[in-house]
């Protein structure tokens, strides 16, 4: 269990950071515990420290208000159990490996870019026709994620979002390894820097392709290669389950603090009223989900065979994302994908 005032490791984007637990929300007793001058006290409900300050999507389960070591207090935030880990040697090793992987990914990509420039090759902007070709099948399908995820037997869908609000104090499960290609790891690092350091947010709806269009295009492309009806059914169930996971995990796990105000605005805007999150958000948010999928699976009751199937399906999806990286992520024109935020927006979003 995590102790009030104790150390922990918390996910912020693709990385783990040392943090201190400043408050703890107990959903059973509906109380927020705060440490004041060495004593544990219960915060008043309507105070800034009380339940009124907890994001609505986290109130249903245990959650923690943390301060990231060495960061300004404006980054202090409430996080759910899926983003918090015990401060121990095993998780410190995981933290170190994530940093090393990110550095290697960045270094390798920079080296590839240098070689590309040296050879005189140019990477022009993706044509509108190319973007249309990859997405044309998706536009024919249509349909929201909620309707697509109702098929029987979907390995992800059957979990009903399991792991998104489960206690992490359970016995540690075997670590699930998902091989994320270097180019995609580098994208995650760039995404983290653009949002947390450059104070940019993604344009909504996604200017390239949406999560719905991305998964529909992937399903169409892979289905043509599969001869077995059983394999095609597994593919369809996987994509349906992933859409369901995305819908349920977006507000809990996939947004940086700077993006939460934008999320609140999406919920209020009339033009988004009848749209699912899969029809609004783009591939980078899907990639964020895929990067934490192993953590989510370790907190479910899914058997080993089911986990292995999802890992194989996910690695296939990741390979397809790499092949279509320019069309999906518009890597040559990040300025068209991310937009600057105003000082007023930052003040409200970060509580300054």
Average pLDDT number: 78
Helix percent reads: 40-55%
Radius of gyration: 21 Å
Which sequence of SSEs, written as H and E, runs from N to C? EEEEEEEHHHHEHHHHHHHEH
Number of domains: 3
Q: Quaternary arrangement of the chains shown?
A: single chain
**Residue windows where pLDDT falls under 50 for at least 5 positions:** 121-172
| Broad CATH class of the largest domain | Mainly Alpha
- The named CATH superfamily of the largest domain: MRG domain
Largest sheet, in brief, is:
7 strands, antiparallel
* Coarse shape: globular
Label this structure with key terms.
3 domains; MRG_C_sf; alpha+beta; seven-stranded antiparallel sheet; Enzyme I, Chain A, domain 2; two-stranded antiparallel sheet; 47% helix; globular; MRG_dom; 352 residues; Chromatin modification-related protein EAF3; SH3 type barrels; 12 helices
Report what the structure shows.
It is a single chain. The protein has 352 residues and is an alpha+beta fold. α7 crosses α12. It contains 12 helices and 9 strands. A hairpin with a 2-residue loop joins β3 and β4.
């Amino acid at each position: 269990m995590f102790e009030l005032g104790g150390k922990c490791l918390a996910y912020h984007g693709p990385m783990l950071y040392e943090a201190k637990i400043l408050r703890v929300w107990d959903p059973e007793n509906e109380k927020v515990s705060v440490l004041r001058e060495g004593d544990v006290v219960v915060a008043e409900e309507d105070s800034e420290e009380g339940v009124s300050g907890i994001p609505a999507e986290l109130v249903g389960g245990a959650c923690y208000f943390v301060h990231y070591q060495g960061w300004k207090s404006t980054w202090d935030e409430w996080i759910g159990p899926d983003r918090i880990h015990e401060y121990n040697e095993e998780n410190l090793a995981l933290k170190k490996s994530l940093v090393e992987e990110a550095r290697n990914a960045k270094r390798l990509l920079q080296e590839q870019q240098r070689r590309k420039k040296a050879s005189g090759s140019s990477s022009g902007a993706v044509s509108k026709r190319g973007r249309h070709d990859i997405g044309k099948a998706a536009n024919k399908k249509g349909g929201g994620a909620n309707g697509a995820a109702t098929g029987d037997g979907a390995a992800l869908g059957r979990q009903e979002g399991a792991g998104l609000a489960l206690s992490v104090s359970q016995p540690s499960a075997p670590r699930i390894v998902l091989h994320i290609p270097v180019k995609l790891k580098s994208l995650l690092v760039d995404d983290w820097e653009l949002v947390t350091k450059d104070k940019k947010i993604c344009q909504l709806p996604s200017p390239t392709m949406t999560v719905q269009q991305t998964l529909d295009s992937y399903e169409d492309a892979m289905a043509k290669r599969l001869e077995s009806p059983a394999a095609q059914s597994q593919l369809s169930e996987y994509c349906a389950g992933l859409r369901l996971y995305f819908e349920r995990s977006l507000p809990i796990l996939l947004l940086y603090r700077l993006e939460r105000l934008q999320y609140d605005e999406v919920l209020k805007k009339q033009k988004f009223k009848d749209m699912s999150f899969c029809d609004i958000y783009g591939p980078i948010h899907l990639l964020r989900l895929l990067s934490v999928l192993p953590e989510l699976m370790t907190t479910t009751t899914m058997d080993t065979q089911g986990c292995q199937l999802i890992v194989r399906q996910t690695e296939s999806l990741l390979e397809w994302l790499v092949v279509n990286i320019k069309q999906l992520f518009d890597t040559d024109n990040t300025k068209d994908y991310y937009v600057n935020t105003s000082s007023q927006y930052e003040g409200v979003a970060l509580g300054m």
